[in-house]
Design goal:
With about 625 residues, the chain is an alpha+beta fold. It has 13 helices and 23 strands. The N terminus is likely disordered. Keywords: Membrane, Transmembrane, Transmembrane helix.
């Protein structure tokens, strides 16, 4: 285009300056002269200006851009580009090979003064195109109006380090509009598009640096407007009506290397303050590899969709504070597999596994008003070394709400209770309703829980009881199981009711040679005849309830303590109270003693028989 403009301009200038050599017929009439004066001459002037501006504007713009970036960042950032084109008639500007880099010396100096920002950015752009710029509006009305800005193949490196948890001292408290008001009345950009962004994100806020590489990333900003009306408009982020970020097919790895996480699709909109995630998967290594590297339990998490509403992204980005009105998880699975090769206990108090203590110890300022769960399966698995089998307890199709999930000091001061209400189906059959109340600001970790399990067959428990407890439920039906417990880190107290009919069991023992479990026939008969209480209430209508006081051992984790507390309450209901257990133990010991005596006598008889046979064979008998 510059070549074409130059050619036309030279031709027109030649025609206008060589009147003595050429007689122009169209200038004979008066109206033709006026047309030439008011139309053709301005066109020639504009064309000449376009040539001059396009030729000399690039170095002027480069100098201006460098100066603006340097001043606006107080010397922290330096900007540059290799070349620029201005197409004044089309309102188009093209910049090539743009770079934005931080000055590390300035950053380190600010860090020593505790004034360094948490986030440091380095940007490289091959080509930046500005479309529909309006230079006349800028010149005559002092309004910078741009239709669209497109950044092609931007490479972005972001480094995050938590240098401070609130804004550092700012000398200039003016708004952006107040800063530009002397030279510009307004700045408006219709769309800003960043396509095929190559983003490397390094997070130094944890114990280990977390590096994320995002490739299928796109960003768009709509309706950026800086003027007197928008300078205090809180509905805009960075003066934009909406900023949309989309990410596809992202895969990452935790610093420990134990887990990989995948996201099928992520979208964040600042207009709606909504973050949507589809196809989230946090997957551990295979069991052998995982337990070779870790003594912790192996966890997994899948979610079909997650929606976070009224998410304060800006504060999360700046200070790692997670604030949202609600968080919804729809469809998913949580798995936990206890470590079968745990090493010696380190002696630490497992009170840190209590949910209210876990929230307090998070390396994150957390505040979510409501968490909603829908159709989530929870599976707990454990390997039994005696049986060499794995048993699982399942809570299927779990739904519910968690209110006031927070460790934010001001939020906890207003409300220090987190309420949890869940509905699930135990072993995919019996309906389980549970309510928890956790106190969030007490070192003793107090909480309460109560719940009830509806009708279900005992046989539904066999996938858990057979490999883990070597007990098979052959008949019986749970009518209702309920509990009400008040607890803290030291003691669990409460009441347990267990109503059922026709309970019968078979006790098992491992047959490792055939990789199966086989019956302990005599003891099973003994247990069903003399130990197990088959009905509660019994045939006379007597109901057995259990009041529990369970002192938590220091090395007992939260869920293990709850299970042991419930089990302590269940045993008396089925006839296994302390007195019955002692009597049963005595009977079993007596039975084993008699059995051993019988085996001993049998062995002696066989020995004497063998000796007589030998004597007879020798003719000495």
């Amino acid at each position: 285009m510059p070549y074409r403009i130059t050619k036309v301009a030279i031709l027109l200038l030649t025609l206008s300056n060589n009147n003595r050599y050429m007689k122009l017929n169209f200038l004979k009439h008066r109206w033709q002269k006026r047309l030439f004066k008011f139309v053709l001459i301005p066109v020639v002037v504009i064309l000449v200006l376009a040539i001059v501006v396009n030729r000399y504007w690039s170095p002027i713009l480069a100098s201006k851009v460098k100066d603006v970036v340097l001043k606006s960042s107080d010397g922290l950032y330096k900007a540059d580009f290799s070349d620029a084109e201005l197409h004044i008639l089309r309102g188009k500007i093209i910049l090539y090979n743009i770079t934005l880099k931080p000055d590390t010396a300035v950053y380190n100096q600010r860090k020593r003064l505790h004034l360094a920002p948490n986030t440091l950015v380095e940007l490289t752009v091959k080509r930046l195109v500005i479309n529909h710029a309006h230079p006349f509006s800028l010149y005559f009305q002092k309004k910078l109006n741009i239709g669209q800005i497109i950044l092609s193949e931007p490479k972005l490196k972001v480094t995050y380090q938590l240098n401070h948890t609130k804004d550092t001292v700012v000398k200039d408290h003016r708004t952006a509009w107040q800063r530009i008001a002397k030279s510009l009345k307004s700045v408006h950009i219709g769309n800003i598009l960043l396509n095929d962004v190559n983003l490397d994100y390094e997070d130094y806020s944890g114990n280990k640096v977390a590096i994320s590489k995002l490739r299928e990333l796109s960003l768009s900003a709509n309706d950026l407007l800086i003027d007197s009306a928008t300078q205090t408009d809180k509905s805009r982020l960075l003066y934009c009506r909406d900023i949309v970020t989309e990410l596809n097919n992202y895969t990452g790895e935790t610093p420990s290397g134990l887990y990989t996480y995948k996201i099928k699709h992520l979208k964040l909109s600042t207009l709606t303050s909504q973050l949507n995630i589809e196809g989230l998967a946090v997957q551990p290594l295979k069991p052998d590899n995982f337990f070779d590297k870790s003594r912790k339990d192996r966890l997994g998490f899948l979610a079909d969709s997650i929606q976070i509403n009224h998410f304060d992204y800006l504060n999360y980005h700046k200070y790692r504070t997670f604030s949202a009105r609600s968080l919804s998880v729809a469809g998913g699975k949580i798995t936990a597999f206890t470590n079968p090769v745990k090493g010696p206990d380190d002696g630490s108090d497992k009170v840190k596994t209590f949910p209210n203590m876990l929230i307090r110890k998070l390396n994150l300022d957390l505040r979510v008003d409501t968490v909603k769960l829908r159709r989530v399966d929870v599976v707990y698995s454990e390997f039994n070394k005696k049986t060499q089998q794995t048993g699982a307890v399942e809570f299927n199709n779990t739904s519910g709400t968690i209110l006031n999930l927070t460790n934010n000091p001001s939020a906890v001061a207003k409300n220090n209770i987190s309420d949890v209400t869940l509905v699930s189906y135990f072993m995919n059959y019996g309906r389980l309703d549970v309510q928890f109340k956790f106190t969030l600001n007490d070192d003793n970790a107090p909480f309460s829980c109560k719940g009830s399990l509806g009708s279900m067959d005992f046989s539904r428990l066999n996938p858990a009881t057979m490999p883990l407890a070597m007990v098979k439920m052959t008949s019986g039906k749970v009518k209702k199981f309920s509990f009400d417990i008040a607890a803290n880190s030291k003691v669990f107290k409460g009441k347990v009711d267990f109503l059922y009919n026709d309970l019968k069991v078979v006790l098992l023992k491992p047959d490792t040679a055939n990789d199966r479990l086989k019956r302990k026939t005599i003891i099973s008969i003994f247990a069903n005849l003399f130990v197990i209480k088959h009905n509660n209430p019994d045939e006379k209508g007597k109901l057995t309830s259990s009041y529990v006081v369970f002192k938590r051992p220091k090395d007992f984790a939260f869920w293990k303590t709850i299970w042991k507390t419930l089990l302590t309450g269940i045993k008396p209901c089925i006839g296994l109270d302390e007195k019955s257990q002692k009597a049963t133990k005595d009977r079993i010991d007596e039975h084993n003693k008699n059995k051993a005596e019988r085996l001993k006598n049998k062995a002696e008889r066989q020995k004497r028989k063998a000796e007589r046979k030998k004597l007879m064979d020798e003719g000495k008998f």
